[in-house]
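Final report, Chapter 2: Outcomes

The project's central promise was a pipeline that accepts a single protein chain and returns its three-dimensional structure in a standardized token representation, suitable for archiving and comparison. That pipeline is now operational. To close this chapter, we reproduce one record exactly as it appears in the project archive, with the input sequence first and the structure output second.
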Amino acid sequence: MTRYRECFPVVDATEAVSMGSPQTLVDPLDSPLEVVEYSCDSPLRHPGKLVAAMFGDFIRSRELIWTLFTRDMRAQFRQSVLGYLWLLLPPVATAAVWLFLQSQKILNVQTEIPYPVFILVGTTVWISFVNLINAPLQGFNNGKAIYTKLNVPPEAFVMSAVLRAILNFLIRIGILIPVFVYFKFTPPWTAFLFPVAVMSFFLIALAIGLWAIPFGSLFSDVGNFLTNFVRIFMYLSPVIYPIGRKTGWFKAIMVYNPLTPGVAWSRDTITTGSYEWAVPCLVYGGISVILIFLALIFLRISRPHLVARLGM
């Protein structure tokens, strides 16, 4: 086979700083090339390399993640009149419906704190929880036009969507300030634990969302099922009403619901100061960390097959 040698003019990095620096001719066949090794062995046979490569992709993609994040935040409500006010409308509208039912005596909900404060905190945390469940799959699907054609890690699009969901939650939290002022409600000293409770709760959402990627990216029914299934859990969690004091099967479902501690303790940290749900919330958050790590490994292993299927 004939080997052709061509020389391309390139500017030397050290000499290009000064004006009028001469160009040097570099032979591409003599320049060092990156060596890529392909193996038919399963990545699980080398778990150390698998984990190192997984975290290495996150580190190398940090600039890409930030670029995608800022781009999506600017484009999120670019053509809307209300802009970021749309982030506040879902929890406000949901709370308004239940407050209306309460005012018309259709519901009779007894709470330790003002009911508007109770329901607004619950709906704000819950809507952000649901958005965080959907964020990984949405980010993965939104970036498939790029990572199926270019050597770009799909995790960058997933992380960008997760960061956007977290920032949207921080914006929604701002609506609680005027509500607390209006009702002259002073949060207890445990309010500094609010980020810990919310983070533990949101780790559950992130674990669910990451595990949904390999299946939801291939079958749209998975995403639709997940959205409707999680919606049911809103009525099985203390989002719009507290856990009743009377015994019964419905109370048992709410008590053993793994989402109850996250909702209850997140609200308690800034309202009542109770620690009743602190331990279960932290335990479920710790379990979610393990599930997130396993989900990332599973996504890493299945990524070539997913990219091949989506690129067809």
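Archive annotation: Residues 47-310 form one domain.
This record, like all others produced under the grant, will remain available to the consortium after the project formally closes.
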